[in-house]
From TrEMBL:
Residues 19-106 form the RimM N-terminal domain. The PRC barrel domain binds ribosomal protein uS19. It comes from Comamonas guangdongensis. An accessory protein needed during the final step in the assembly of 30S ribosomal subunit, possibly for assembly of the head region. Essential for efficient processing of 16S rRNA. May be needed both before and after RbfA during the maturation of 16S rRNA. It has affinity for free ribosomal 30S subunits but not for 70S ribosomes. It is found in: Cytoplasm. It comes from the Bacteria. The keyword Cytoplasm applies. This is Ribosome maturation factor RimM. The keyword Transcription regulation does not apply. The lineage of its organism: Bacteria, Pseudomonadati, Pseudomonadota, Betaproteobacteria, Burkholderiales. Pfam families: PRC_RimM (PF24986), RimM (PF01782).
Amino acid sequence: MSHMPTLEAASLPADAVEVGRIADAWGIKGWFKVQAFSSAPEALFAAKDWFLQPAEKGAKHFSGTVLLPVKQARFHSDTIVATSPEVADRNAAEALRGARVFVAREHFPKTEDGEYYWVDLMGLAVLNREGQTLGTVRDLMATGPQTVLVVGYEQDGKEQERLIPFVDAYVDKVDLAAKTIVADWQLDY
């Protein structure tokens, strides 16, 4: 028997960004753990409505997109836990396991000058000061105090990667409108 909470069907907002997934039930009162993508844990805390879609793999307890009203989301040691008025107990929370969590972009806190959400940097073209294409941002890695751009490119028919520290010393400019990043970096680094 499924204890899936009754969540209303919704359509994903046009500006929705996938920010994490529901990892597991937490405790007995319907709280659940959320595995946030490092791009935007703040958005999980700021949004009062999360949009859920079923996991790509494994058991699906619902289909399409549903709206999950969130009463509270907070850090608990190194994980994020949240609760919803619609999720009454542990069984209901377990039924959400694996669900993909999206929030509307409008709920992301504003970034400071020079700060970017990882999700905004993905897919940007990276050029050097000479205008040569270094590749496309495929991923980002947090390495201690700094973030590193993982820039993918093709060479001799093979996929390659360049790792460029996302720091002022190397990154001259991020132009979200033009979808480009200019870096002080050479093709042979």
